[in-house]
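Budget justification aside, the reviewers requested a transparent look at the raw inputs and outputs of the sequence design task funded under Objective 1. We therefore reproduce one unedited record. The lines immediately below are the structure tokens for a 300-residue chain.
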């Protein structure tokens, strides 16, 4: 147990090694600005083309993408993250002279990712099988189970693109470059996690729950940053992130936003403080167990 809980980050040295060739902070800061600029430009170009093709259906499609209320809206929203991934890879190559493979941490990323993914699937299967039972009747169907099954392969791919891109940016590029410049984990683990949490701050949608959801996201960032430092690759972080988002986007979502691919819809919205707060504590518990499961699988 002590070995599982130990903060042994020796593998992180090899993960950070490619970033040490050009560790200057100005490169990182300019890289983030460049990523944002390229992402915005690509998004505008791609979606302008899509909306032109849509013609009279453009307004409806825009609303679907904005809310993620339909399968096609969700697919455009999720695959859009691929543009962010492309921008990140371009900035990394142009400013730091390293490619996509260096962001993942080598060949071990696939093996570690598959192992942790198997552990996460088993964990979530147990969680869904545990009592209390009888809660499903309070849920509403999102899309029919037949359509859900037909769309499942493409839905899994879309979520994989979204989760992988966020890990490449926050736990790959940002964490690597900060660790190449600063020795303290308080900087290269905490700072990207805080930024990740800030990116999930949505007061217009979540109301009084917005801060707690943002804190949840920041802690999730700490978990995936720790797994990355522990394993020396992005594989485990991507696996945990992927399964978390599959659960939230494909199985049970809220009526407010991003529910176009969900099998079930909860009877409460994100802004419903009385209903959401207890579930956030449950999510904190699941996050902790997911972290321990991933560390157990890695056994480093």
């Amino acid at each position: 147990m002590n070995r599982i809980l130990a903060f042994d980050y020796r593998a992180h040295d090899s993960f950070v090694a490619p970033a040490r060739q050009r560790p200057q902070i100005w490169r990182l800061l300019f890289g983030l600005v460049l990523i944002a600029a390229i992402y915005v430009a690509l998004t505008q170009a791609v979606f302008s083309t899509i909306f032109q093709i849509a013609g009279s259906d453009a307004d409806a499609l825009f609303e679907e993408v904005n809310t993620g209320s339909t399968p096609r809206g969700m697919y455009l929203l999720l695959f859009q993250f691929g543009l962010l991934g492309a921008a990140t890879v371009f900035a990394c190559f142009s400013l730091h002279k390293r490619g996509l493979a260096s962001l993942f941490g080598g060949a071990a990323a696939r093996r570690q990712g598959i192992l942790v993914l198997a552990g996460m699937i088993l964990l979530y299967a147990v969680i869904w099988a545990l009592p209390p039972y009888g809660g499903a009747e309070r849920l509403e169907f999102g899309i029919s189970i037949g359509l859900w099954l037909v769309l499942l392969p493409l839905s899994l791919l879309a979520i994989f693109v979204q989760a992988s891109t966020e890990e490449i940016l926050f736990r790959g590029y940002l964490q690597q470059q900060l660790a190449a410049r600063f020795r303290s984990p308080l900087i290269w683990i905490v700072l990207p996690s805080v930024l990740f949490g800030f990116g999930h701050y949505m007061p217009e949608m979540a109301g009084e729950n917005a801060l707690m959801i943002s804190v949840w996201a920041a802690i999730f960032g700490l978990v995936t940053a720790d797994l990355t430092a522990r394993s020396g690759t992005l594989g485990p972080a991507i696996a945990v992130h992927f399964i978390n988002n599959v659960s939230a986007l494909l199985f049970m979502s809220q009526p407010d936003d991003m529910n176009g691919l969900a099998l079930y819809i909860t009877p409460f919205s994100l802004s419903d403080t009385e209903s959401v707060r207890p579930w956030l504590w449950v999510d904190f518990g699941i996050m902790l167990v997911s972290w321990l499961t991933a560390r157990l699988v890695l056994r480093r």
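The first helix runs from residue 2 to 5. The mean pLDDT is 91. Computational costs for records of this kind are itemized in the attached budget.
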